[in-house]
Amino acid sequence: MVHLSKVEWPVRSVAAGTAGTAALTLAYRVEHRLRRRVRRALDYDDSLVPGQIVAAVMHLPHVTAREEHELGLLLRWSYGSAFGLWHGTLRRIVGEPWASVGFGATLMTATLTLFPLLGRTPPPWRWPADVMATSIGTHVAYVSAVAVVDDGLRRRG
Q1: Of the candidates 90, 95, 108, 84, which has an alpha carbon nearest to the alpha carbon of residue 12?
Q2: For the chain, what is the radius of gyration of the CA atoms?
Q3: Each residue of 27-45: pLDDT tens digit?
């Protein structure tokens, strides 16, 4: 059995990123249940847009909606887990709470710029208020879970 004290910070950070991705996914599920009347994606991360971006970047022709959904999930879980490394890096440099503030700011900047720059969404000032609120709320859940899990693993080590 591996002791947490022997686990290096990058492994803890990726584990925290995975937990954050699970929290984000759960936040979407909860909001879908609370907003049953909404028959569309709650925000752009919850839509086919991430999969469409992956398909375009990889030059995949003739991708179905199901495949776009699967590519989007692959992107969410791989990127969400690996992005925990940025939180771990910031935590080592500036500590909390500034690590989480910088981490969240980086994440939201990426969300609000990359989707429009890659041509898949309107600019953020044209996003409907409920879409923006969902995007912020789910990303707060992600950042919070990353910080809590990283802190918990760090304390155990």
Answers
A1: 84
A2: 16
A3: 999 999 999 999 899 999 9
